[in-house]
Design goal:
It is built from 4 helices and 2 strands, in the order H-H-E-E-H-H. The protein is mainly α and 140 residues long. The longest helix is centred in the first third of the chain and has 44 residues.
C-alpha cells in the first residue's frame, strides 16, 4: 500500500495529500447523505403502503394531505394518487441505490481497497427466472 501512496505523490506533496483527503471525505459524506435519503424515501413508501391498505378496506371519501393542505376526496382518487407516488418513490430509491453502488466502489478505490464483492449484482428478470426454472426441472 505504501508503494501506491508513493505513486500518487501524497508523501511528497502535502497540498496534494490534503486535496486527496478532502475528496475522500466529500465522497464519504455524499454516501452517508444518500443512504439517509434512501431510508427517508423508504419510510415514506411504507407509510403509503399502509395508507393504500387502509383505503382498500374503507370506501367512500377520505381525508388526504397534499403538501400543507387537507382535502376530502373519493377513496379511489386517493388510491390513484398514492399509487403514482409509490411509482415515483420506487424510481427515486432505485436511482439513489444505483448511484450509491458507484460511489461506494469509487470510495473504496480511492482508499486502495478492492470493490465490494457482489455489490453490482442485479436480480434475475422474469424471463431469466423462468429459464432457470426450466433448467432445474420446474415448470412455470
Amino acid at each position: 500500500m505504501a508503494h501506491r501512496v508513493d505513486e500518487l505523490g501524497l508523501l511528497e506533496n502535502p497540498q496534494h495529500s490534503l486535496e486527496y483527503l478532502e475528496e475522500v471525505e466529500r465522497l464519504g459524506k455524499e454516501i452517508v447523505s444518500d443512504k439517509r435519503e434512501v431510508v427517508a424515501l423508504d419510510r415514506r413508501r411504507n407509510l403509503n403502503r399502509e395508507a393504500l391498505r387502509a383505503l382498500h378496506k374503507d370506501g367512500g371519501k377520505t381525508w388526504l394531505t397534499v403538501g400543507s393542505l387537507l382535502v376530502k376526496i373519493p377513496a379511489n382518487k386517493a388510491q390513484e394518487l398514492l399509487h403514482q407516488d409509490q411509482v415515483q418513490l420506487d424510481a427515486e430509491i432505485n436511482k439513489l441505490r444505483s448511484e450509491l453502488k458507484v460511489k461506494v466502489n469509487r470510495l473504496r478505490d480511492m482508499e486502495f481497497q478492492s470493490p465490494v464483492p457482489g455489490l453490482m449484482l442485479n436480480p434475475l428478470t422474469q424471463s431469466e427466472l423462468s429459464a432457470m426454472g426450466q433448467v432445474i426441472g420446474r415448470h412455470t
